[in-house]
C-alpha cells in the first residue's frame, strides 16, 4: 500500500494547514524536495551480508571431539549432521550456533525499533534524526491488520475490526502524521535544529538500521517475536515486529535449513 498527496511548497503548506484549522478541506503536505508524504503498511527486511551455514554449527560442535579434522567431515554425512544439529538444539547446547553472522537492513516504524532494540545480543546502527532530515514515510495499519484486542494481558487475542474502525484508524493516522510532518518542516524552515524539530514526529515514522545477529541470538528474537502454536513457550508479540521477525526467519531458514528445522522441531526455544 502506498499513499499520498499533492505537491505544494512549504509556505503553501503552512497556509493550507492554517486554512484547515479554520474549517477548509485539508491539503496534505509534501517534503521540501516535493516528494509526497508516503504511507506504508509493511516492514522491509533485506539480508545484506551473511556468513551463516549449518556447517558452521557442525565444525564448532565437532571440535570438542575431533579438533581440526572436523572441517573435513562437515558435508560427509547429511543425516548424521542433521541428527547432531537436532541433538545440540534439543539439549540446549547453544554456543555452536554462535559461529555465524547475518546482517539485515531493516526499514520499519520507530515503534518496531524500540522493541527490537531490547534484544541486547545483536548489533545495531540506525539512521540519525540529528544528522539528516527524516523522510515523510509513515506506517498505517493495512486492511488485514487485526485491530481489536480481547483477553487478559499476556494472552491477548486480536480480532478484525469493523470497516468503520479500519477507516477511523487510517484517517486519524494519516491526518496526525501529515500535520506533524508539516510542523517539523515549519520548524526546519525557521532554522530550528533537526534534533529539536523532530520531537513532534510520531513513533509511526519509519527509520532504518543495520542489524547484525548470529543464529543463536536470532532464535531468541524469533522465539519471543513470533506467535506460533507449535512454540513450547508461546509469545504474543506486537504484529508489526512479528512481520519483521518473519522476514528474518525466512532468510535464516534459507541459509541454515538444518538449524531452522531443529529449532522448529524442538518447540522454537532458543538453545
Ligand atoms: C510479548 C513481549 C512483551 C514485552 N513487554 C514488555 C514490557 O511491557 N515492558 C518491557 O520493559 N519489556 C517488555 N518486553 C521486552 C522483554 O522484557 C525483553 O527485554 C526482550 O524481549 C528482549 O529479550 P532478551 O532479554 O531475552 O534479549 P537479549 O537482550 O538479546 O538477551 C538474550 C539473552 O541473553 C541473556 N542476557 C542478556 N542480557 C542479560 C543480562 N543483563 N543479565 C542476564 N542475562 C542476560 C538472557 O538469557 C537473554 O534471554 C516484552 C517482550 C515481549 C516478547
UniProtKB/TrEMBL annotation:
Keyword annotations from UniProtKB, A to Z: FAD, Flavoprotein, Methyltransferase, NADP, Nucleotide biosynthesis, Transferase
Active site: 225
Name under which the protein is recorded: Flavin-dependent thymidylate synthase
EC number annotated for this UniProt entry: 2.1.1.148
Gene giving rise to this polypeptide: thyX
Positions contributing to dUMP binding: 115-118, 126-130, 198, 225
PROSITE patterns registered for this protein in UniProt: THYX
Catalytic class of the enzyme: transferase
Binding sites annotated in the UniProt record for FAD: 95, 118-120, 126, 214-216, 220
Cofactor-binding details, from the entry: Binds 4 FAD per tetramer. Each FAD binding site is formed by three monomers.
Gene3D superfamilies reported in the protein's UniProt record: 3.30.1360.170
Subunit structure, as described in the record: Homotetramer.
Lineage: Bacteria, Bacillati, Actinomycetota, Actinomycetes, Propionibacteriales
Any matching Pfam family: Thy1
Keyword NADP: yes
Amino acid at each position: 500500500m502506498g499513499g499520498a498527496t499533492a505537491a505544494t511548497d512549504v509556505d503553501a503548506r503552512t497556509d493550507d494547514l492554517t486554512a484547515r484549522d479554520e474549517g477548509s478541506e485539508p491539503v496534505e503536505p509534501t517534503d521540501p524536495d516535493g516528494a509526497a508524504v508516503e504511507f506504508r503498511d509493511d516492514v522491509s527486511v533485506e539480508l545484506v551480508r551473511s556468513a551463516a551455514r549449518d556447517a558452521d554449527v557442525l565444525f564448532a560442535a565437532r571440535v570438542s571431539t575431533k579438533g581440526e579434522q572436523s572441517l573435513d567431515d562437515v558435508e560427509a554425512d547429511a543425516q548424521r549432521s542433521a541428527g547432531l544439529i537436532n541433538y545440540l538444539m534439543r539439549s540446549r547446547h547453544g554456543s555452536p550456533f554462535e559461529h555465524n553472522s547475518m546482517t539485515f537492513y531493516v526499514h520499519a516504524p520507530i515503534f518496531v525499533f524500540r522493541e527490537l532494540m531490547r534484544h541486547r545480543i545483536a548489533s545495531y546502527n540506525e539512521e540519525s534524526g540529528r544528522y539528516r532530515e527524516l523522510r515523510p514515510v509513515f506506517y498505517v495499519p493495512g486492511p488485514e491488520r487485526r485491530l481489536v484486542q480481547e483477553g487478559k494481558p499476556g494472552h491477548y487475542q486480536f480480532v478484525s475490526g469493523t470497516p468503520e474502525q479500519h477507516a477511523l484508524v487510517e484517517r486519524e493516522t494519516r491526518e496526525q502524521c501529515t500535520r506533524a510532518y508539516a510542523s517539523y518542516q515549519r520548524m526546519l524552515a525557521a532554522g530550528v535544529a533537526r534534533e529539536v524539530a523532530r520531537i513532534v514526529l510520531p513513533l509511526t515514522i519509519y527509520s532504518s538500521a543495520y542489524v547484525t545477529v548470529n543464529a543463536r541470538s536470532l532464535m531468541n528474537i524469533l522465539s519471543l517475536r513470533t506467535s506460533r502454536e507449535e512454540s513450547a513457550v508461546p509469545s504474543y508479540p506486537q504484529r508489526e515486529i512479528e512481520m519483521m521477525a518473519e522476514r528474518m526467519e525466512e532468510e535464516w531458514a534459507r541459509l541454515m535449513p538444518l538449524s531452522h528445522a531443529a529449532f522448529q522441531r524442538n518447540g522454537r526455544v532458543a538453545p
